[in-house]
Protein: N-formylglutamate amidohydrolase
Organism: Hellea balneolensis
Amino acid sequence: MWPKKNAPQTGNYATFERRILKRFQPAFQFCGPDIPIIPLIMSSPHSGRLYPNAFLQESRLPKKTLRRNEDAYVDRIITPLAAHGISQITAPFPRVY
């Protein structure tokens, strides 16, 4: 989806890409104990709810329809597990992005 690092970037696309990449930094969030007590990491890579306005404007589908592809709120379901020593990794962006 993203151009190669050495590919020339011109016009609005390059500006758009820089803004999007900056917004998704870091690309994931990690939560867990400093010293894991359980060898388990819960992952929620598709439950993000961050939809950039530029993406929504280009989409032919309304946000409500796009949200059907999320693993909605899985990140909120697994968050309490950190209190029990279980690490987790989540992404802020949705599957459709």
